[in-house]
User: Fold this.
Amino acid sequence: MHTEAAGRVPFLRMRKTSLRIFCVVSLVFTTGACTMNETQQRTGSGAAIGAAAGALLGGRSGAAWGAALGAGGGYLVDQTKKRESTEAENQRLREENYRLQQQAQ
Assistant:
């Protein structure tokens, strides 16, 4: 029969290691995000969310698939936001151009 020393519970050691890994990964992502552009941030966020969801649903292989799908989704969201922003700016410029043409006449 295997007994643990008093005050030493195996799952707490595992949790302490997991907590350390989480802190290191969070620190790396936080400092790395400072120099990322919007596309990189959205893609990275999508990958992180996808990896977390995949890990909950399917373990390690699920996390890998989730990260890949999440990164792709984050990139698509970024491109959609950029397209919407460009279209709104173009519309604003068209309206301003029309207004200036009306004033010139």
Observations:
- The mean pLDDT is 80.
- The CA atoms of residues 14 and 66 lie 24 Å apart.
- The two ends are 97 Å apart (CA to CA).
- The longest helix spans residues 38-104.
